[in-house]
Structure formats: structure tokens, C-alpha cells
């Protein structure tokens, strides 16, 4: 027990692991290396034994051996974490002793806990743009198929590179584990990482917060403005383009019309509110002008005419999310 606790105090995780009953281990051993554990602050220190108790099970055979025997020792004591004492109990076992060979003691109940890494979405602030169409650059609008990407590629723990899958609980010795977030991308930021404190027999969770960036809001605004402009470029029929409000209908008045054209007299205001891994684009206002030539009937002369219509008198909202490194609109309808 003293060797086990001394190894942990000095960050010699592999030695402590070698003293551990292998039947008690499961999952990734990525956190149980000397390199990782020596970098962990708040390790167990100054272990003091207060009481021990022995238990022996199993029966001998005719040859006087006791291959099925198991001797266990419970060691109760106290240990310090960052200067604060806490009670600690260890259980050591020795199995299958014989007159010739005495197997070593192994720790069956030690100080192992679990570290789990999760992600969580934070809430952000509003990102707005002025009215008008933003020039489109970069990739084409992504598809909306598939689930949002939430996998986090961990870079390090306590500044030591570690390969540990997100959402996975891995065995860990006691201490304070600072989990670094992956590097920021254009549309996502992960903040400064998270710290979790592992204690024996408990699962500590480090939650990494993913947040859409202002650039994600700007990209969403650009995509919605494309939709708005596609409504203006209708095909000239009496039916508005798919997903466009009724104001974009090219009306047929009494008589003959030709050379109909829709254009903005006042462009709508488009802004994005970023929240968690996505947000909302709001479209409001806008005055649409329809110009055309009209005559009552042939052979009368054509007259130039125009009329206007307010479009988004009520605010229209379009949700978006960051998915697979790009921004995706959850709907392409402006109705």
C-alpha cells in the first residue's frame, strides 16, 4: 500500500498501475501514463495508515496447498489533496498462495476514478448586418443532410498530448485535469478548455463549450440574402418563386402587360443572432417595386407604370447551425 501511494504521489502512474489488479481495469489507459500523470497537479500525497484488517477465503487440498485461497487486506487511512486531508480505503489481495510460490499483493480497490470529456453549447450575442446583398465568396451553400458535427478532437491534457475520444470515460488517478479544447475554426470557437477534479471511485466530467462565431452569423446572413435575391429574380409568372412571400408575385392587371421587373426600392434588414452551435437570421422590412409597361388593348400605345409593396412587415426568422465546418440553413423558405 505504501509503495502504491508513494508512486502516485511522485506521478509514477505506470508503477502504481503495475501494482493494480488487472481485473479491475477497463477502458482506455491513455491517462495512466507517467507523462500524463506527472503533469497533473493535486495528486494524492502524505498517505497515513490508521487501521488494517485481514480476510482469508478458500480451502486447502490434500497436498497442503491452497491454490484457490485469497487473502485480502483492507487499509484505512487519510491522504492529502492540495493540503486538505480526506479519508481513503485501499483493498489489497493475494491469490493462490502455495508453499513454494507466494504471489505478490495487488491493489483491487485503489484510488482510480474516471474522467469523462463532454461538450456543451454556450449562448452568445447578436451579430447584425446592414441591409443589402453581401457578395458571396467561399464554398457553395452546404446541404442540410446529416447531423450537426459535435466531435471534439482533444489536443492535450495538462499540456500533454493525449488521444482520448469525446464522450468516453477513461480511468484516471486522482488530481486536477485541465482538458484543452481543439483549435478554433472559422465558424466555431471552443474557449480556453475545462478543468475536472478526479477522486477515487468517482467520475469527473470536463465540459468543453462550443460556440458559433460571429463569422457564422455573417455567413448565415449571406445565405439568407441569397434567398431574398432569388425571389426578386422570379420567372415572371403570377406565382411567386418557391419559398418566397406573396409580395414577390408578378401580378397580371386588367389589360396587357410586358417587361415586368422586380427591384428593391428599400432593401430589407437582415441580421443574425448567434446562440450555441447556431442561431437565428431575422429578415424585416423592405419595399419592393414592380415596373412594367401596360396598355388596355392593341393597338393602343404602351405606358410605363410601377407600383410598390411592403414585403417583410412582420419579422421572418430562419434558423441556422454549424455543421461539418460550414453554416447550414434549417429552412430555405421565407414565407
SSE order and pairing:
Blueprint: H1 2-9, H2 13-18, H3 34-38, E1 44-57, E2 70-81, E3 84-95, E4 106-109, E5 113-121, E6 123-128, E7 169-172, E8 175-179, E9 188-189, E10 194-198, E11 203-212, H4 214-232, E12 256-266, E13 269-275, E14 278-295, E15 303-323, E16 326-329
Parallel strand pairs: 5-11
Antiparallel strand pairs: 1-2, 2-3, 3-4, 5-7, 6-13, 8-10, 9-11, 12-14, 13-14, 14-15, 15-16
Give the topology string: H per helix, E per strand. HHHEEEEEEEEEEEHEEEEE
Q: Estimate the mean pLDDT confidence.
A: 80
What's the total helix number? 4
Shape: rod-shaped
Helix content: 10-25%
Gap from first CA to last CA:
71 Å
Would you report the number of β strands? 16
Task: Estimate the strand proportion.
Answer: 35-45%
Largest beta-sheet details: 6 strands, antiparallel
What structural class is derived from the secondary structure elements? mainly beta
Radius of gyration: 34 Å
Low-confidence spans: 61-66, 122-126, 128-153
Give a written overview of the molecule:
- This protein is mainly beta.
- Helix content is 11%, strand content 43%.
- The chain contains 4 helices and 16 strands.
- The chain has helices at 2-9, 13-18, 34-38, 214-232; strands at 44-57, 70-81, 84-95, 106-109, 113-121, 123-128, 169-172, 175-179, 188-189, 194-198, 203-212, 256-266, 269-275, 278-295, 303-323, 326-329.
- The strands form 4 sheets. Strands 6, 12, 13, 14, 15 and 16 form a 6-stranded antiparallel beta sheet that branches.
- Strand 14 (278-295) and strand 15 (303-323) form a beta hairpin.
- The protein starts with a helix and ends in a 6-residue tail after the last strand.
